[in-house]
Design brief:
By secondary structure, the chain is of the alpha/beta class. It is built from six helices and 16 strands. The protein has one domain: Nitrilase/N-carbamoyl-D-aminoacid amidohydrolase, CATH 3.60.110. A six-stranded mixed β-sheet has the order 5-4-3-2-1-16. Strands 8-9-10-11-14-15 form a six-stranded mixed β-sheet, with helices on one face.
Length: 270
């Protein structure tokens, strides 16, 4: 059994303010016994329009978020998953990049979001992530003391094949840091997270942004932890804060023994 903490944030446009808020919650989570602490997508900042996001994003070398979370992990002796930060990779593109730091402060893994969210919502909201973000091109799994972790970010959640590939590569814990919109969150968030857990016999841990952000964007909150049997075992509601949950790796083995679907995949031709 290990204690996990999901941090629910309301990131604004100022990187330093957001990192200060996240640091306080990381310290709170560690003091409450968490050994693995997860933050949501866009931990460093949420700012509109996209031109501002590009202007204010930083290259990986010397990035304030990378430095701070590395130092925190080492100081507190915990593992930290930074859901994503905006990393400038060219004059006109960023990577939406997640990191996992081990308890020595070293980067154990990093992942660039593969699937980009381009949509016109019935509410009038429009998103064109591909205008700003360079997509990743590979899945990432990383061994940890708590189980093998498969990394994904937000919109990736809708692509079951990515999660199947992560499970096939050994993932027992799937992380989905997110900044889901309110309409899609209300309709699909819990259902998709529970489906990914059930399909793959994995824990699914999803730290989320919540509330209203710069430019009027609203995110859904409800950071969730889901068991390998598909039960919601923690829900962060809509307030900023720390969501604590205990997970037991034995639950993965039990679920996969009961429903060994990972062994029964078939390849279809068309």
């Amino acid at each position: 059994m290990v204690q996990i903490a999901l941090l629910q944030l309301n990131a604004g446009p100022d990187i330093n303010e957001n990192l200060k808020a996240a640091e306080g919650l990381v310290r709170e989570a560690a003091a409450r016994g968490a050994r693995f602490i997860l933050t949501p997508e866009n931990t460093c900042h949420m700012i509109s329009p996209q031109t501002k996001k590009l202007e204010t994003s930083l290259p990986e070398d010397g990035h304030a978020a990378v430095t701070m979370f590395s130092d925190l992990a080492r100081e507190l002796g915990v593992w930290i998953s930074v859901g994503s930060v905006a990393v400038k990779v060219s004059e006109d593109k960023i990577a939406n990049r997640g990191y996992i730091f081990d308890d020595k402060g070293e980067v154990a893994a990093q992942y660039d979001k593969i699937h980009l969210f381009d949509v016109d919502l019935p509410t009038g909201e429009k998103h064109r992530e591909s205008n700003l973000v360079r997509p990743g091109d590979k899945i990432v799994v990383v061994p940890t003391p708590f189980g093998t972790v498969g990394m994904a970010i937000c919109y990736d959640l809708r692509f079951a094949d990515q999660f199947r590939a992560l499970a096939k590569a050994g993932a027992e814990i799937l992380i989905v840091p997110s900044a889901f919109t309110v309409p899609t969150g209300e309709a699909h968030w819990e259902s998709l997270l529970r489906a990914r857990a059930i399909e793959n016999g994995c824990f699914v841990l999803a730290a989320a942004q919540t509330g209203e952000h710069h430019g009027g964007r609203k995110t859904y909150g409800h950071s969730l932890a889901v068991s390998p049997w598909g039960a919601v075992i923690a829900d962060g509601g809509t307030e900023v804060g720390v969501v604590m949950v205990d997970i037991d790796a034995e639950a993965v083995r039990s679920a996969r023994e009961a429903i060994p679907s990972l062994q029964h995949d078939r390849v279809f031709g068309f």
